Amino acid sequence: MKTKISSVLCFVLVVFGFIARAQRSQAGYQKVAYKTIRVDGLDVFYREAGNPDKPALLLLHGFPSSSFMYRDLINDLSANYHLIAPDYPGFGLSSQPPVSAFDYSFDHLAAVMEDFISRINLKHFSLYMQDYGGPIGFRIAAKHPGWISALIIQNANAYQEGLGNGFKKIMAMEDAGDKAGVENILKSIISFEGIKVQYTGGANNPAHIDPDAYLMDYQFIKGEENEPIQNALFQNYHINLTKYPDWQQYLRQHQPPTLVVWGKNDPIFIAPGGLAYQKDLKNAEVHLLNGGHFALVEYHAEIAAYIRSFLREKGIR
Fold first, then answer.
1. Can the keyword Hydrolase be found in this entry's annotation (predicted)?
2. Is residue 19 part of a domain?
């Protein structure tokens, strides 16, 4: 009897040991690595987590943010996926060459991110885009449709229906060549209060908005050296609207599996912009969240659950 009990006990200990090792292995993959790689003569900072053998997600951040905006989502998903979140040149911890030495346009940022993807040897990935991540990501996806496993779109616009009234006013000023007027608006937007309201405006519960989000954005973007960078990109933004037909054609032609998770109270890119993807995508899954422009801060756990469910349904696991 003692021998039998000992055998069972040994078996149980072996099983628990195996589970413990698996859990430790998985926990190891959940750790975030903070890396910098040389791309086109620039230092590109990026966050990376998860098992490289798992499906990859490339996370492209918005304005005036950085890869920091994805910190919670990375933790939510790193047990299931391989996550990479870079900072664009001029943002976060990546190089910030002066406007006299670098063309700060969306075409150029997309080209640098395209080269970044090649440098880290990323072959196939789901592409998460928010705000500025939209015009950068859509340029890459339309040029390299074979790279894209799926799209995850959060308040990243590709339709006229998604432009809020304030945003339309700024675009009209750009089209009219009112550079001084646009620059003055930008100064207000990248002030501390201007950045804060982008996070708290439209939030379901402002008390759930982590102040670290807007405090970090402000620290990265403030100062005389960074303001000309943001101004150059802001003045270039209206070019993106001329690309909308190209991006819509890409969606119609290639029908990438697409999940839309949209803060419906966003005054910049309004809710009809999220719903508009259903015009060109036969099977787009759309969720309108009771949040604002940076809904991810308030709803990262819910968005992570949507992503897991969506990608599992599409066979991306």
1. yes
2. no
Residue type, 137: G
Its pTM stands at 0.90
Please report the pLDDT score of residue 5 as a whole number: 40
Region 209-234: mean pLDDT is 95
261-305 pLDDT per residue, tens: 999 999 999 999 999 999 999 999 999 999 999 999 999 999 999
Whether residue 5 lies inside any domain: the answer is no
Could you tell me if residue 14 is inside a domain?
no
Supply the angle between the helices 179-189 and 192-200 in degrees, to the nearest 10: 70
Do residues 141 and 243 make contact, with C-beta atoms less than 8 angstroms apart?
A: no
Q: Does the residue 140 lie in any domain?
A: yes
- Cis peptide bond upstream of 64, omega within 30: yes
Q: Where are the alpha helices (DSSP H) in the chain?
A: 2-30, 71-77, 106-119, 133-143, 165-175, 179-189, 192-200, 211-221, 227-236, 238-254, 271-275, 277-280, 295-313
- Catalytic site includes residue 293: yes
**Per residue in 139-162, pLDDT tens?**
999 999 999 999 999 999 999 999
The DSSP secondary structure of 282-310, one letter per residue, reads TT-EEEEES--TTHHHHHHHHHHHHHHHH
Q: Which two tokens stand for residue 252?
A: 């119609």
Nearest to 141, CA basis, from 155, 161, 156: 156
Cα separation of the two ends of the chain: 46
Whole-number Å distance between alpha carbons of 305 and 285 = 13
Q: What is the CATH number of the domain that holds 216?
A: 3.40.50.1820
Angle at 153 between CA 283 and CA 296, to 5 degrees: 130
User: Residue 195 in 3-state DSSP?
Assistant: helix
In tens, the pLDDT along 185-200 reads 999 999 999 999 999 9
Instruction: Specify the amino acid at residue 15.
Output: V
Of these residues, 61, 82, 293, 300, which one is catalytic?
293
- How many structural domains comprise the chain? 1
